[in-house]
């Protein structure tokens, strides 16, 4: 029997899992191709929710999607593993061994053959080599980081409750991640205070540091100003034009010599591709290590390799690394690849900006949509913006689960409110 066309997708995030699911349901199901998804973890999470997992205001066991389960329902295969290199001539990728925290090797290094390779390995925060950041700061780039942050946050909160002390947290990066995290941590304290050992809740002193002149630079100025006002109202100290020059075990140093003391230090600024892109041989990369692609999302050097989402850089028409762009690129490839496999040319990707939404916990939110009329800062605000923010997650969940399981998942989340505390306490 002739060998089926092999599509290997590396990275099951916003873009990769959507593509694997759609291709699985089309050419995987019909038997025209063999679709394999590879990811370094075993479950998918909606990355724009990581700050909620970090604060403990969302229960990630409800929001994880098992790759193995998704694969078995949508006609693709899943292999756990971290891409460690590739041989473009032999059309193989190398997966690093899967190792237990105890050091036990569960799976040895493996090679996977492909006819078409899609790289969707996302991005991480960029510390730009700032001294002390790698050693002394926490990141929230993935679920492991977010859970690790939450463990530290709960421990420090308990200490502050027990000793009636103030807890100092400093967050670097006034983009959506840092801004939303600051608000979510406040919400976590508000909720945790309902279970306060009969003690007065401690003071949470959060400082948000942004190198640029305003927070949320991707939004209109009025939204930045309104969000800063809202954060200050709940007690977050926002410092703009604050360039961090270093970090140590006690806080951050700013370029102007100011020290910002902090027990917990979070780096949520900048975006760069995972370092592994530099091990892929002689490929053209952007300054932040993203793989340079043509408008068809094929690498500039190789017709058989595609990159999409945060790890891709479309030199002709760059798009910001957002979940919206990642999803649209996945949908584009899901539409075009089946015909391309049959020898037809690929269509160029075109980004359609549908706007942006940001939510500050339960406190406030803003949404901007292109083509609308400017209302002092956005087209939507308050509860409607927060609902749209939530809807984006539900839309993603329905797309991956289908209508029935999507509805069941909403029901489970709703019922969960009657069973568990609304903030993680253990
Ligand atoms: C806290 C936070 C809030 C955000 N909020 C928003 C928002 O409100 N709106 C918005 O549009 N965007 C938001 N973003 C950005 C958005 O999450 C990303 O743009 C989007 O997730 C990119 O999708 P992706 O598929 O490229 O990568 P990801 O979703 O990050 O997926 C990458 C996948 O690759 C896997 N992987 C990584 N390295 C390897 C490797 N070497 N081998 C194998 N697998 C690997 C990872 O495990 C992961 O599953 C937010 C990001 C964060 C961190």
In short:
The protein is an alpha/beta fold and 426 residues long. The protein folds into two domains: 5-124 and 271-341, FAD/NAD(P)-binding domain, CATH 3.50.50.60; 133-270 and 356-419, 3-Layer(bba) Sandwich (FAD/NAD(P)-binding domain).
Please explain how this structure is put together.
The chain has 426 residues and is α/β, with parallel strands linked by helices. The chain has 2 domains: 5-124 and 271-341, FAD/NAD(P)-binding domain (3-Layer(bba) Sandwich); 133-270 and 356-419, FAD/NAD(P)-binding domain (3-Layer(bba) Sandwich). The chain has 11 helices and 24 strands. The protein has helices at residues 14-28, 50-55, 60-63, 67-73, 133-136, 143-163, 176-192, 221-233, 323-341, 383-401, 403-419; strands at residues 5-10, 33-39, 43-44, 65-66, 77-80, 83-87, 92-95, 98-99, 105-107, 110-113, 116-119, 167-172, 204-209, 237-239, 244-248, 251-254, 259-261, 264-267, 291-293, 305-307, 312-314, 356-360, 364-368, 380-381. The strands form 8 sheets. The protein has a 5-stranded parallel β-sheet with strand order 5-2-1-11-20. Strands 14-13-12-18 form a 4-stranded parallel β-sheet. It has a 3-stranded antiparallel β-sheet with strand order 6-7-10, with no helix packed on it. The longest helix has 21 residues, at 143-163. It is globular and about 70 Å long. Bound molecules: flavin-adenine dinucleotide (FAD). Residues 10-16, 38-41, 47-48, 50-51, 82-83, 120-122, 140, 142, 176-177, 274, 276, 309-310, 321-324, 326 line the site of flavin-adenine dinucleotide (FAD). GO terms for molecular function: NAD(P)H dehydrogenase (quinone) activity. It is an enzyme of class 1 (oxidoreductase). Pfam families: Pyr_redox_2. Keywords: FAD, Flavoprotein, Oxidoreductase.
């Amino acid at each position: 029997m002739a060998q089926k066309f092999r599509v290997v997708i590396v990275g099951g995030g916003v873009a990769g899992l959507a593509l694997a699911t759609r291709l699985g349901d089309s050419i995987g199901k019909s038997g025209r191709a063999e679709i394999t998804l590879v990811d370094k973890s075993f479950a998918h999470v909606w990355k724009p929710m990581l700050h909620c997992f970090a604060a403990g205001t969302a229960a990630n066991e409800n929001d994880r999607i098992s790759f193995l389960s998704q694969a078995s329902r949508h006609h693709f295969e899943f292999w756990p593993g971290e891409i460690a290199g590739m041989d473009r001539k032999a059309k193989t990728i190398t997966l690093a061994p899967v190792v237990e925290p105890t050091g036990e090797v569960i799976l040895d290094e493996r090679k996977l053959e492909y006819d078409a390779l899609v790289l969707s390995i996302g991005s991480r925060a960029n510390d730009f080599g700032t001294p002390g950041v790698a050693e002394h700061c926490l990141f929230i780039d993935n679920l492991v980081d977010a859970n690790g942050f939450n463990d530290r946050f709960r421990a420090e909160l308990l200490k502050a409750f027990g000793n009636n002390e103030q807890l100092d947290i400093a967050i670097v990066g006034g983009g959506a991640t840092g801004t939303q995290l600051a608000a979510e941590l406040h919400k976590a304290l508000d909720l945790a205070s309902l279970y306060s050992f009969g003690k007065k809740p401690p003071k949470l002193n959060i400082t948000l540091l942004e190198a640029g002149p305003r927070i949320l630079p991707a939004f209109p100025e009025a939204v930045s100003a309104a969000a800063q006002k809202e954060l200050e109202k709940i007690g977050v100290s926002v410092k703009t034009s604050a360039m961090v020059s270093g970090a140590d075990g006690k806080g951050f140093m700013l370029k102007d010599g100011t020290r910002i003391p902090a027990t917990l230090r979070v780096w949520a600024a900048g975006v760069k591709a995972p370092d592994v892109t530099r091990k892929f041989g002689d490929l053209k990369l952007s300054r932040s290590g993203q793989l340079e692609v043509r408008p068809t999302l094929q690498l500039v050097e190789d017709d058989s390799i595609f990159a999409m989402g945060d790890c891709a850089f479309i030199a002709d028409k760059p798009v910001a690394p957002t979940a919206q762009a990642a999803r649209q690129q996945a949908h584009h490839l899901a539409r075009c690849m089946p015909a391309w496999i049959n020898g037809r040319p690929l269509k160029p990707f075109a980004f359609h900006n549908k706007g942006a939404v940001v939510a500050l916990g339960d406190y406030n939110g803003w949404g901007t949509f292109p083509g609308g009329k400017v209302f002092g800062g956005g087209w939507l605000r308050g509860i409607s913006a927060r609902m749209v923010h939530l809807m984006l997650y539900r839309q993603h969940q329905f797309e991956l689960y289908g209508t029935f399981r999507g509805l069941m998942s909403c029901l489970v989340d709703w019922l969960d409110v009657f069973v568990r505390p609304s903030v993680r306490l253990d």
